[in-house]
Design brief:
single chain; about 300 residues; Rossmann fold; DNA polymerase, domain 1; 2 domains; seven-stranded mixed sheet; 13 helices; about 45% helix; globular
Length: about 300
């Protein structure tokens, strides 16, 4: 299995982790192992844990790292870090990397149903198990469809699209990607159909819903930070505003210190920061990477370091 994926912000991400040769690092979305390999190269006496929920990624990672005695390969979701560390008998980590969202392999493998450019079963399951996008499209009520499209896709025309889906599925189930893409296109105002692909936000919304991405990100952020040793770093790459907003707010919360009113002469709350931001602003792709990998355009890297308490 060849898991094609061009690692985004590779150098910047590796630098942000401040890798110690004898440290223990977890790549929670290891994919094809691009970031993982660069972490592993910098280890001497340390350990790497590669985690991914996609069976295709696990197969690729096993082929790539299966003979390395300091690499553990785990099929799981990064939100389950406490369970993963418990099984490996590891108390804490020196760094965690989370590269959030859909991979190039998942997008480019037509049969996975993530892309609106090629016809395939309407699937979108990263783990290749559980509820599919077709299940949601054909069974959810109008109101639930509107909620998913609005909340997870920030789709302005959510009601029009949900109504079009309702009409279509009354005559026959919606089972393929291009079928859904055409339904969405028909619901879009004609003047808006050529800005960006009309189905882009709908596919994003359904993918997030199918995989429970935002709930798992929220849980995963807290679990990853809790697992860090003092001085350990959490680096997170996001690709859309919903993810980035959550990461930004969570890191800001960890970095918050005294909350006493400004006119208090001394601190009485006793609150001290749990973390510090490594970069105050998110790191984004430079011109060279943008020209070589257009999918890096929306990528944002945020990193924080756990403080001694």
């Amino acid at each position: 299995m060849e898991f094609l994926h061009k690692s985004v912000l590779l150098d910047e991400t590796i630098e942000s982790l401040n890798i110690r040769p004898d440290g223990i690092y977890l790549d929670g979305t290891a994919g094809g192992g691009g970031h993982s390999y660069e972490i592993w190269k910098r280890l001497s006496g340390g350990r790497l844990i590669c985690v991914d929920q996609d069976p295709d990624a696990i197969e690729t990672l096993t082929e790539r790292f299966g003979g390395f005695d300091n690499v553990s390969i785990i099929q799981s979701n990064f939100s389950e870090i406490p369970e993963i560390l418990s099984k490996l008998n590891i108390p804490s980590l020196d760094g965690v990397l989370l590269d959030i969202g859909v991979s190039s392999h998942q997008l480019d493998t037509a049969g996975r149903g993530f892309s609106y450019h090629t016809d395939a079963p309407l699937d979108m399951r990263m783990s290749q198990s559980g509820t599919t996008a077709a299940d949601l499209v054909n069974t959810l009520s109008f109101n639930k469809l509107v909620y998913i499209l609005s909340a997870y896709g920030e789709e302005k025309f959510a009601k029009k699209i949900a109504r079009a889906i309702e009409r279509e599925r009354e005559s026959a189930p919606i089972t393929t990607t291009l079928q859904l893409a055409e339904i969405v296109k028909s619901a879009y105002p004609a003047a808006k159909r050529h800005d960006k692909h009309p189905a882009r936000k709908t596919f994003q919304a359904l993918r997030i819903a199918v995989n429970g991405e935002l709930d798992r990100l929220s849980q995963g952020l807290d679990n990853a930070f809790s697992a860090l040793s003092p001085g350990g770093r959490l680096s997170v790459i996001t690709f859309h505003s919903l993810e980035d907003r959550m990461v930004k707010q969570r890191m800001a919360k960890w970095c918050e210190g005294c909350v006493c009113p400004k006119d208090f002469p001394i601190c009485v709350c006793g609150k001290t920061p749990d973390a510090r931001l490594v970069n105050k602003k998110p790191v984004e792709a430079g011109e060279i990477e943008l020209s070589e990998n257009p999918r890096s355009r929306s990528a944002k890297l945020r990193c924080c370091e756990k403080l001694e308490k």
